[in-house]
Amino acid sequence: MREPTLGNPQNTIAVLQKYQFHFQKKFGQNFLIDTHVLDKIIRSAEITKDDMVLEIGPGIGTMTQYLACAAGKVVAVEIDKNLIPILEDTLSGYENVQIINEDVLKVDLTELSKKENGGRPIKVVANLPYYITTPIIMGLFENHVPLKSITVMVQKEVADRMQVGPGTKDYGALSLAVQYYARPYIVANVPPNCFMPRPKVGSAVIRLERHETPPVQVEDEKLMFRIIRASFNQRRKTLANGLKNSPELDFSREEIETAIESLGKGASVRGEALTLEEFAALSNLLIKKE
């Protein structure tokens, strides 16, 4: 197996010129060109030869080469058909890599992990396109894809939202959803000059270590997330008003206010003041009313 040849600006430019590749804004393409960051991602993902890694959006195969050297198998899902000939070239010396030309949001990843990894938990490592970061991460969790961890490059502001707690401006539905499924921590902050082309905002590598069992006991997971979404859809409203006005919920004002009171909260409390444990308790109280 070859040593990685990509990961620096000169080699990336050479590959792009060879194939006359043009970046497509609609796919959010920003290729990583910093070997130190690549090394850090691979180390923090704790990849071994026992692991199957799913890479989403491999681009020209820069990180794929590093992953292939560390993992037992790499499955790379790339939506842009123009990148497939480039990947077939840059990854030709890596026999443990499979390329799938698909939209990852349309791939049955649970079925893929069964087929390629016997249903054992996989690790996800990716430099995610900013415009679909949340749908990808939530899709992995909500569809219960067998996962050990997700180590991804995302917009710095999104990474911050994933790990903050109640009472902060960044706290919201994404924070609660991620923390229900996983333990998040930021591995590294990455400036725009580590990419080609340079994005307008800073990035961060975040690792999400999947909980073996969720940190809270909730009787109806889907109901809890409907309540959470309703709580943050109109942040300026009180929690009671947010829940009462939500088309996703069907509780009377009295039921909602009684449940909030049972939590020991006042009528004017807002959703951003509640912890994950309190949202789980609220959901369990309201489910008894249905």
Which secondary structure elements does this structure contain, and how are they paired or packed?
Layout: H1 9-18, E1 31-32, H2 35-44, E2 52-56, H3 62-70, E3 73-77, H4 84-90, E4 97-100, H5 109-117, E5 122-127, H6 133-142, E6 147-155, H7 156-163, H8 173-181, E7 182-190, E8 195-196, E9 203-210, H9 221-233, H10 239-244, H11 253-262, H12 276-287
Parallel strand pairs: 2-3, 2-5, 3-4, 5-6
Antiparallel strand pairs: 1-8, 6-9, 7-9
Helix pairs in contact: 6-8, 9-12
Descriptive notes:
The protein is elongated and about 65 Å long. The strands form two sheets. The chain has a seven-stranded mixed sheet with strand order 4-3-2-5-6-9-7, sandwiched between helices. A two-stranded antiparallel sheet has the order 1-8. It is an alpha/beta fold. The chain is built from twelve helices and nine strands. The chain has helices spanning 9-18, 35-44, 62-70, 84-90, 109-117, 133-142, 156-163, 173-181, 221-233, 239-244, 253-262, 276-287; strands at 31-32, 52-56, 73-77, 97-100, 122-127, 147-155, 182-190, 195-196, 203-210. α4 links the parallel β3 (73-77) and β4 (97-100). It folds into two domains: 9-210, Rossmann fold (3-Layer(aba) Sandwich), CATH 3.40.50; 221-287, rRNA adenine dimethylase, C-terminal domain (Helicase, Ruva Protein, domain 3), CATH 1.10.8.
